């Protein structure tokens, strides 16, 4: 029975090929617009997530109580014993790629002639480089993990900070900071290179140095943060929960808490997409509805005849809805094919987008191909076609039989 209904609906769609093709074309355009928008939004979410995690924050950070607010105070630091205990604990957690300590502090960077406020970070260069190639992208000179020179104490400066101090790779800079136990300490560092993160605020203040030098400067042997990097971002909450259970006296925060900007972008883009999706669906509904209305008006007498010989109105309505679903499916599949080709082509071209607000570096235009998204959009187009055909069909199937037979 269902096969006969499909065959009949398909033949009815082909009765006016030109009109059906026009409706399918509009459905296809709507499908392409939706899928390209979805692909761009998903790629933006994925790219922002990975950049946030792998260029700075990591998946999870652990700190002493108050350590996320008072990173440089002695009571807010993780002791060397705590750091070793954390390293031992994360080794037993599934999905952990590696972990590393960081020491954060504030101070002054000076060349004698120029002095600028700075934010220092003592790091393990080797592990930080493992986190991502986006870590400290070098603008000039050598990375912090480059070849070691005896007697040299390397430092990596933000590009804008180096410009403000008027220093070049190979020159020296003095870092002054308050020691955790009280007093002021200073250390002379050799600028091995400059880097840029794309964020002007960070590029104008950041200084990176090996962890040991930062500990010597502050007079401590611990760290202010313990960063955990995972193999799979989806396991973040499970790993964070395990660390909270193992270290209930420490603060454990996931990357989304440490970087609220991500959720703000997700909310903004989601709202924009919902508005665009609503408009596109409305256009598709109007298009299919208009096409099917013309079809229904041409077949009022046919509907009256079928009702006169015993066909129920509900069955006729389902027939029209099935015709609309076929139009939505054909147009949807055509749109899927076009969207797939365009997405792959645009991504392969490597087109660069202008820097987003708050950043100075462009980013590649990528349109993500998502199987679930393609399936959802196809189902949406089929539903739009079905609803767009069912509504005008009521004009014919609810008309009295005598009136329908005499309709002209």
UniProtKB/TrEMBL annotation:
InterPro entries: ABC3_permease_C (IPR003838), Lipoprotein-release_system (IPR051447), MacB_PCD (IPR025857). The chain crosses the membrane at residues 272-297, 325-351, 363-391. GO terms for cellular component: plasma membrane protein complex. Residues 21-244 form the MacB-like periplasmic core domain. It is a multi-pass membrane protein. Keywords: Cell membrane, Membrane, Transmembrane, Transmembrane helix. Belongs to the ABC-4 integral membrane protein family. LolC/E subfamily. This is ABC transporter permease.
């Amino acid at each position: 029975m269902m096969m006969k209904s499909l065959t009949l609906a398909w033949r009815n769609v082909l009765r006016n090929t030109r009109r059906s093709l026009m409706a399918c074309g509009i459905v296809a355009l709507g499908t392409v617009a939706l899928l390209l928008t979805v692909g761009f939004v998903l790629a933006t979410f994925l790219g922002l997530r990975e950049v946030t995690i792998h260029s700075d924050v990591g998946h999870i950070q652990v700190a002493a109580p108050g350590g996320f607010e008072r990173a440089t105070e002695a009571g807010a630091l993780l002791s060397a014993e705590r750091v070793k205990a954390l390293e031992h604990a994360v080794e037993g957690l599934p999905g952990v790629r590696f972990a590393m300590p960081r020491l954060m502090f504030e101070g002054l960077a000076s060349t004698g002639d120029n002095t600028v406020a700075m934010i220092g970070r003592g790091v393990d260069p080797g592990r930080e480089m493992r986190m991502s190639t986006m870590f400290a992208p070098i603008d000039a000179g050598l990375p912090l993990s480059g070849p070691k020179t005896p007697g040299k104490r390397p430092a990596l400066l933000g590009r804008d900070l180096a410009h403000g101090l008027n220093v070049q790779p190979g020159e020296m800079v003095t870092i002054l900071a308050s020691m955790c136990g009280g007093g002021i300490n200073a250390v002379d560092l050799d600028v091995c290179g400059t880097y840029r993160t794309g964020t002007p605020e960070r590029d104008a203040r950041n200084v990176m140095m090996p962890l040991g030098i930062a500990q010597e400067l502050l007079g401590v042997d611990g760290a202010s943060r313990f960063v955990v990097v995972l193999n799979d971002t989806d396991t973040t909450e499970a790993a964070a929960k395990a660390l909270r259970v193992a270290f209930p006296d420490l603060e454990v925060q996931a990357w989304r808490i440490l970087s609220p900007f991500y959720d703000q972008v997700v909310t903004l883009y989601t709202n924009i997409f919902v508005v665009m999706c609503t408009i596109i669906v409305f256009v598709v509904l109007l298009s299919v509805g208009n096409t099917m209305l013309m079809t229904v008006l041409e077949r009022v007498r046919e509907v009256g005849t079928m009702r006169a010989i015993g066909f129920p109105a509900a069955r006729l309505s389902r027939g029209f809805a099935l015709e609309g679903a076929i139009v939505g499916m054909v147009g949807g599949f055509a749109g899927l094919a076009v969207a797939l080709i365009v997405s792959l082509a645009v991504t392969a071209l490597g087109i660069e987008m202008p820097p987003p607000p708050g950043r100075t570096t462009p980013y590649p235009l990528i349109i993500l191909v998502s199987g679930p998204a393609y399936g959802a959009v196809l189902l949406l187009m089929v539903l739009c076609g079905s609803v767009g055909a069912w509504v005008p069909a009521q004009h014919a199937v609810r008309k009295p039989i005598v009136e329908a037979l005499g309709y002209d």
